[in-house]
């Protein structure tokens, strides 16, 4: 399962990074970027929480 952030829509609020820093971090454009790897098993629930909490709904989580 992987996480994706639509770079065009991210407003850099930092919520996903606060909730799940193992998966999300700021890139050089100060937008959130997800790790390329699969979401670690013990972070999946928090990654989904971050997706659900994103104020602009730009996080996608897919198999
Ligand atoms: S919660 Fe959404 S808008 Fe906020 S930093 Fe993460 S991806 Fe960007």
Q: Can you put this structure into words, describing what you see?
A:
This protein has 63 residues and is of the alpha+beta class. The protein has one domain: Alpha-Beta Plaits. The chain contains two helices and four strands. The protein has helices at residues 15-19, 44-53, and strands at residues 2-5, 24-26, 32-34, 59-62. The longest helix has 10 residues, at 44-53. The model has no long low-confidence stretch (mean pLDDT 98). Iron/sulfur cluster binds at residues 5, 10-16, 32, 54-56, 58-59.
Enumerate the distinct ligands.
iron/sulfur cluster
Distance between the termini: 4 Å
Mean pLDDT: 98
Q: List unreliable stretches of 5+ residues.
A: none
Number of strands: 4
Number of domains: 1
Largest beta-sheet details? 2 strands, antiparallel
Order of helices and strands: EHEEHE
Structural class: alpha+beta
Strands of the largest sheet, in order across it?
Answer: 1-4
Question: Per DSSP, what share of the residues sits in E-state strands of 2 or more residues?
Answer: 15-25%
Helicity level: 10-25%
